[in-house]
Design brief:
23% of the residues lie in helices and 31% in strands. With 437 residues, it is an alpha+beta fold.
Length: 437
């Protein structure tokens, strides 16, 4: 710096802060940490206080997951582990000892003894009509929308309408059971409720073996008036259904949604072979459109089954076959929660005492290893005797169904069968990858 003549010289000094000691540094860090904690607490309190007001004005986010749905199973009356011979609904030898025609005659005679006045007939018709009208609040229209193109590559949209029945209503969703054709090859699903409101539906799970599907509608997409009006159908006990019982068909028995029919049960067949088990089969004189979704109720308005085409109906042109609900409740719970039904792919019957006396091993005699099913692909054949799964003895259809029900699709399990050789049965172990229906 150049000095000016006569200017006095001054000492120039630079003030430097002393270095911070470790104690001072630690104290400062602690202060910062304490301030961060204080600000965090204030933010949390502010969020809790302001959240109710924000939800009031801006709404809430939809739940991220569904509420689990539980369906209580029914105890089969007189259930026994004793072997039963296969009973097909169309075979003469599978008919009950009392012929359906004889039952009709007995019912006819009893009805003829009743003084059928116009008042009595009107009261009976009113009572049955109330069952159908009350259940209508649980019936929805499922519209299957498919996007296609015509010969000139112009986009076209086709829509099919099917009936569905509400199984559950909770804060997250409305769960609906419908027929398989309603969701087959559908690009989107629309659900119309009884009072006319329409909402988008989502497929939860299907059962191709039973030709059923379960779909859901988000509860948040429904108006409050709709939520208050709709209700889930009450599930009944189909084990209590007997020949001659009056039943009501709702859904789409006449081919149009919200149609109603009524009639009676003609007979109930037991031990009918089905995929991976046995079931009862209910037959009725109520003619229905099975592929549009028809559901059957007892006179208490409880769901006891649905019309199905999965069983052979030869010789039953004037009857409808009903799949009963009680044997299916375990699978219905899985479908309602979006869980696939484990599938092994066999049909069979338990070996009877007479068969065992002739040297046939105790177990499940496989009458059909379904082509391309998991058992078939593993090498299991018709005529094999299923005796063990994962080391657990299989001595009845019930034990087989119970074992399979606890498995998961995609898991690999050990399956032991007895196969007849030249002189005797030989034990063979297979590894089967459980599929999904």
């Amino acid at each position: 710096m150049t000095e000016t003549p006569g200017e006095k010289k001054f000492m120039r000094e630079k003030i430097v802060k002393p270095k911070m000691s470790r104690r001072e540094a630690a104290g400062r860090i602690f202060c910062y940490f304490l301030l961060a904690v204080i600000f965090g607490v204030v933010a949390a309190v502010s969020f809790v206080v302001s959240r109710p007001m924000a939800e009031k004005y801006f709404g809430t986010e939809p739940p991220s997951s569904s509420e689990p749905i539980t369906i209580e199973k029914d105890d089969e009356p007189g259930a026994t582990t004793a072997a039963m011979e296969t009973m097909e609904p169309t075979a003469p030898e599978t008919r009950p000892e009392t012929d359906p025609e004889e039952i009709r005659e007995i019912v006819k005679e009893e009805l003829e003894q009743i003084p059928w006045t116009p008042e009595n007939i009107g009261a009976l018709n009113t009572a049955i009509s109330k069952v159908g009208s009350s259940a209508d609040l649980s019936i929805v229209t499922v519209s299957s929308v498919k996007h296609q193109t015509d010969w000139f590559d112009n986009p076209i949209e086709s829509t099919g309408q099917y009936a569905g029945v509400i199984l559950a209503v909770n804060s997250c969703e409305v769960v609906i059971l419908t027929c398989g054709p309603a969701v087959k090859n559908a690009d989107s699903l629309q659900v119309t409720f009884e009072e006319g409101m329409t909402a988008s539906g989502e497929l939860k799970q299907t059962d191709s073996a039973a030709d059923l599907a379960v779909i859901s509608v988000k509860a948040q997409s429904l108006e409050e008036s709709t939520k208050k009006r709709i209700r889930a159908i009450e599930l009944g006990n189909s084990y209590s259904v007997r020949s001659g019982d009056l039943i009501v068909a709702v859904g789409s028995p006449a081919g149009r949604v919200h149609s109603v029919k009524h009639g009676s049960v003609t007979y109930v067949a037991k031990g009918v072979q089905t995929v991976d088990g046995q079931t009862r089969v209910i037959c009725t004189d109520v003619l229905c459109n099975e592929e549009k979704g028809s559901f059957f109720l007892n006179l208490s308005g409880q769901l006891i089954g649905w019309a199905t085409t999965i069983f052979d109906s030869e010789g039953m042109e004037n009857e409808t076959i009903i799949m009963p609900i009680s044997e299916y409740k375990g699978n219905l719970q899985k479908l309602s929660n979006g869980v696939s039904i484990p599938y092994m792919g066999i049909k069979g019957q338990e070996t009877s005492k007479s068969m065992q006396e002739e040297g046939v091993p105790a177990g499940v005699y496989i009458t059909e290893s379904i082509v391309d099913g998991p058992a078939y692909l593993a090498g299991i054949q018709n005529g094999d005797i299923l005796v063990k799964i994962q080391g657990q003895d299989i001595d009845s259809i019930h034990s087989f169904q119970g074992c399979l029900e606890n498995m998961e699709s995609g898991s690999e399990v050990s399956v032991v069968i007895e196969r007849r050789g030249i002189d005797a049965y030989k034990e063979i172990e297979y590894r089967v990858i459980i599929g999904a229906r």
